[in-house]
Write a structure and sequence with these properties.
By secondary structure, the chain is α/β, with parallel strands linked by helices. Helices cover about 50% and strands about 20% of the residues. The relative contact order is 0.06.
Amino acid sequence: MVEKLSLSELQLIIKDSLYLALPDMYWVAAEISEIKENYAGHCYLELVEKHPDDKNIRARAKAVIWGNRYRFLKSFFENITGQPLREGLKILVKTKIEYHEIYGLSLVISDIDPAFTMGEMVVKRQMIIKRLEEEGVFTMNRELDFPVIPQKIAVISSRNAAGYTDFINHLTQNNFGYVFYTALIETAMQGNDTEAGVINALDKIASKGDLFDLVVIIRGGGSQTDLSWFDNYNIAYHITQFPLPVITGIGHEKDLSVTDMVAFQSLKTPTAVAGYLIECMNNADNQLNEMSLEIIDKARIIVEDNKRRIETSRMKLIPVARMWISEIKEQLSDMKLEMINFGKEFISRAVQTPSNQKARLDSASKTFFERNHAGLKLNKQYLISFTVNSLHGNNIKITMLENSLKILNPVNVLRRGYTITSINGKILKSSALVRKEDLIDTQFSDGTVKSRVFEKTSGKS
């Protein structure tokens, strides 16, 4: 009959066999899958080894660090690496294999090598950077155009973070009185939820990208531990593909995370980010002031130049108008002399009538005068009146011509509400000479206005 073994006896055989086969201490490299501390101060871990795809698990084992040893190793590891033992870290531990009849196989950890973990973090970080560079996206966010006036800001941070409060206070209490509009998209800035939270916040902002000029990712200061949460490929990749410039102020003085490296601008602290935005606004303000001064100077030069042109034109028009008036006066004087000479000649001809004609004319005249004395008086009065009226009419014509000259004087034309429109110093007589976007000068009696043509219509008479 086969000898029977109790379960505890079998467990003891397994235990003894393991101790005999594996009596030494071993350095084991693994990743922390789970970690818990109990009330007594002991630390219980689950260690795993993953395939190169970083997803499927190749091996799994339970491990424990007893309380008295854990207190030392915990402090030692954090002082060297700047971060606590946590899920996802790869560690190198010195362990002894133990087997318990109830709890089964476990690894008892007595030492840990921080240098291994730091090396793994550096390798992981370099692999992320290399991957982003190979994909050709590493500098994409830095290649975006930065807004001239960065006024509408989406902020990714934790509402209760001191860094967020410092950022808002520094931004709103700037010495220049600039106004900024901020919208907080709140998320965790450390821990396992950092990746999903930051990516979700970026997606929310992208869905309303037209409301913002840029994105700011900030958090308060912290240990080097916190930097590792931003050495994340997925966060970095989202930033490289983001349509708006991203500025980071994660709060680390010594090193840059991958997130900092791919951002449009990386600054050390949230306050420094606020200072950078204020400086950008101040630069834009100064540029606008310089442009306004240049416009004023150019406008002054144009006005002075046109004043000189108007004065030159006025000086040229005065002698021309005077010559025109003089010519018309001479013409009127000639007409007046011609009328006088004509009257004298007519009278002279009448005086030189032959004597026989004169006698007959005298007789006829006497008869005529006697019969038409009243008519002669009337004709005499009519002739006198006609001559006076003719002279008076010609004087009126002369006066009207003088008034017409005064009316045609450009200075008087301008005073009546008319204007003179020109382009490049050439007076415009037809809309066909003007094109859209042309700069035209309009001269009034008291100054000149420069305009730009925004619309042109043609009319038919």
